[in-house]
TrEMBL record:
PANTHER family: RIBOSE-5-PHOSPHATE ISOMERASE (PTHR11934)
Keyword match Amino-acid biosynthesis: no
Classification via Pfam families: Rib_5-P_isom_A
Protein name as it appears in the record: ribose-5-phosphate isomerase
Length: 279
């Protein structure tokens, strides 16, 4: 008797005759995915595993889903496309956090909405640039931090998916700068004032395929504040100071909002960590 595992279920040759059409379609897509995954690097395989594990455990039919941005989220969209087209998931409504994520969702044939039409979300799933032992995240490497934070705030639950290289004890071990979205009018002043008030250095993020700065989906600039490593910091206080600074729209610090993190490793294992939030 032969068996195969997919969608966290074990199917034997004796039960293939009784699976539904949706399960059969999902199985076929899973097998194709297993074959194609052999072409991925270990890091990309880990990203995919984190996205798929989180989606399997937390997305059900009828879900109003906030979809983050970045390379790991692309595998979440891949999962959704397969699950919806096979019939495994139905009536999924997606609210994207960036132009590129919206394009991925539309290309996948998924239902896309916005916060005007869908102001309350069941779940938001997003990647991160770094997550420390207190579940504080640095996000915004793709320049989508303001919309990511808005969509996260609209969701009942927030889950982070990442490969194990994003896991740290303290912020700065792997990623030592905080993206900050700023009004263009304030950029020059903030580039001078941030190092004085917070230490470190601040640089305007420049585009690679245009002559000028990166422009966010909100038509703002991104300033990357590089902080000094190996220095104890009160990130809540820093977030409060930055949020109260004129000209700063939002920071890439996500503090006290993560419900679970899914870290995936090159060997295929996934570690699920749940934050203990204060009542």
């Amino acid at each position: 008797m032969h068996s195969i595992r997919f969608a966290n279920s074990l199917y034997t040759s004796e039960c293939f005759s009784s699976i539904t059409v949706a399960q059969a379609r999902f199985l076929a897509a899973s097998i194709r995915r297993m074959v194609s995954s052999t072409e991925l690097s270990p890091i990309e395989k880990a990203k995919r595993q984190a996205a798929y594990t989180c989606a399997e455990k937390n997305i059900a039919s009828g879900c109003r889903l906030g979809v983050g941005s970045g390379s790991t989220v692309k595998y979440l969209v891949e999962y959704l496309e397969t699950a919806v087209k096979s019939g495994k998931l139905q009536n999924i409504v997606c609210v994207p956090t960036s132009f590129l994520t919206k394009k991925w969702l539309l290309d996948a044939g998924l239902t896309v909405s916005d916060l005007d039409a869908t102001p309350e979300l069941d779940v938001c799933i997003d990647g991160a640039d770094e997550v420390d032992a207190h579940f504080t995240c640095i996000k915004g490497g793709g320049g989508c931090l303001a919309r990511e934070k808005i969509v996260q705030h609209a969701a009942k639950k927030f889950f982070v998916i990442a490969d194990s290289s994003k896991e740290s004890v303290n912020l700065g071990e792997h990623y030592n700068h905080v993206p900050i979205e700023v009004l263009p009018f304030a950029a020059s002043c903030l580039l001078r004032s941030l190092p004085r008030t917070e230490g470190g250095t601040a640089q305007m993020r420049m585009a690679t395929k245009k002559c000028g700065p990166v422009i966010t989906d909100n038509n703002n600039y991104v300033v990357d504040w590089a902080f000094e490593k190996n220095k104890p910091r009160d990130w809540k206080e820093i977030q409060l100071r930055l949020a109260n600074t004129p000209g700063i729209v939002e920071t890439g610090l996500f503090i006290g909002v993560v419900d679970k993190v899914y870290f995936a490793y090159p060997d295929g294992s996934v570690k699920e960590l749940e934050a203990k939030k204060k009542p």
